Amino acid sequence: MSKKWWPILLILLLALVLRLAFLADIPPGLTHDEANHGREAMGILDGILLFYFPLNYGSEPLYSYTAAAFMRLLGEGIVALRLVNVVFGALAIWAAWLWSKRAFDKRIALTAAALTAVSFWPLASSREALRAGMLPFFMTAAVWFFWKIIAADFADFSRYKKGGVIVGFSVSITFTLHIYLAARVAWLLFPLFLVYLFLWHRSAFRRAWQPTLVGMGLGWLLAAPMFLYVRAHPYVLTRLDMLDGPLQALRSGQIAPVLQNASGALLAFVWPGYGDQFLAYNIPGRPVFEMVTAVFFIAGILISLFRWKRPSYAFVLLWFGVGIIPSLITGATANTTRNLAALPAVFLLPAIGFWGLGDWLTARFPRVKPTWLAGTAAVWLIIAGGVAARDYFLRWGQAAEVRDAYQHTLVEEVAWLRENGVTAVLMSSIYPGPAHDPSISKALWGANSPEERWTDARYALIFPHGQGVTAVIPAATPPHPAFTPFLQEQETIRLRPDDLTPFFTVYQVDSSGLADYLAGDTAVNFNDAVTLKHAQWLDTAVRPGETAQLLTVWQVTDPERAGPRVPPLFTTDLVMFTQILDENGRPLAQRDSLEAPSWAWQAGDVILQIHPVPIPPDTAPGSYPAIVGLYDRASGERLPVLNEHGDVVETYTAVPPLTIP
Q1: Strands across the sheet with 451-455, in order?
Q2: CB-CB contact of 66 with 84 (8 Å)
Q3: How many domains does the chain have?
Q4: Residue 145 lies in a domain
Q5: Could you tell me the pTM of the whole model?
Q6: Strand pairing partners for 629?
Q7: Per-residue pLDDT tens over the stretch 190-241
């Protein structure tokens, strides 16, 4: 192997070491978005093949299909899920090096590659199980093929080689569109650069415009099935809603919010306090570059502006500008994800700045030797890499808030359950919805997950099939005192004392006390789906300004009749309502919630639900009627109450009245 390959190979080796080190432990768990990608990948392995996935407010499919392939090879789990972006993050460094040494020179290419290998943002994005992490590689691949098209020797290519370059360009664009929403803006880089060539490099424009337009057209044609699918199934894409606020303001002539977002997004690269505030992706407020690299980054922008008539410099500025358009609109929060199409250009700019200043110094001061500059670059990169490694692995990766954001307590709960061979469990969580903590659990368990029910034990308790079960309840959801007679504490597992959820407790749920609740003959049938068996106020007299607590006991009869199945996982999504009525039959106080979500119900399950209802301070003394019922969250349609003949008699049922002394 030629020695010229050794520098980039060493850089790639360093990049892989940093990206693979402690991969299963840092980040210290999974976010809901990551887990949902894992859930999609496992669904693909089970034969659920879609053009677009409804989880995560709509997900382009390429990452999930790639993760499924990794899981097929390595087994289902967190390592296979994260390894996708480890590989594509390293490939992005290699692809950017290939292009930049052609567009600029070897010094700039190697410096940019080394800086990308050791910096916080690309390191973090390469270790996250998020689909946007694939975007830098495929965006750079499109740039590499495009640069072939505009090259002076493109006309000398054989017909087959020209066709291969155009197809490579179009397929790369197609892949970017199948990765992340930001790619729908990033492709504008190529027609905008054609405009630049038309204005200042007419001969290159004449060579490039036709094959470029053919490649872009083919790329969009290949992506058309996905867009047609989204059009036919609009529920799969709701993430565009985040753009509505800024764009509506812009349409109405209010430019200040967009300017504020844009200034914040630009300062996020260089100014402390303005970096991405989203804890799951960054140390809140940490800029992309530390102080020294920020100086070179600004110098790179200024040098590129000064040399704008040179196509390479104009192109890297356009790449940077187009790639950060999403965060210019929405602001700095989560910009480390939205700006990933621009990542290769972002890390080229400090390299351009460093070597541009270095060339100026050597021209002005002949005693400054190139070896001195190379040594200075090495020192700079070592310091920048050391700061980034400390910030990522120690400051961020070990922070209690980050452990909480990545649901580390749930990771430890699953580890305990696996170690103890539990095959059926009641899990308590602040986020029991189907696309939240249950997705994390499913991704962690893989194919061998136990039978689970999910609840928030502060307000609800479930008895699967009416029987006892092992329950895992974290400190964040302490069980309601009314559930104490049913819970036998077995073990408390303590985590780090500084964790926001420092322990979880394992209970055995005892169903023997249910008999009195289920024995009554006053059951109310809601659509043959669930039956109200019992209702009582825990405090018989509640004063104005206090909170009344209603305990209801339900038994599931047929979960298939618990309302329509709604996206993203096509499960039921019922809400229980509790209303205290005034003398005119109007709601005086109300609570709408269900902490034992209907998506996980099975026939025979018994549910104890607490309904805390705040009483207005000015409520007059008296006895107030109360009602309960259920409705579908999306449509608001109530579940009907059926009589013994199956006829609809009402959409709610009365429960004991509440006395206000």
Answers
A1: 451-455, 424-428, 469-474, 503-509, 487-494
A2: yes
A3: 3
A4: no
A5: 0.93
A6: 577
A7: 999 999 999 999 999 999 999 999 999 999 999 999 999 988 888 777 665 5
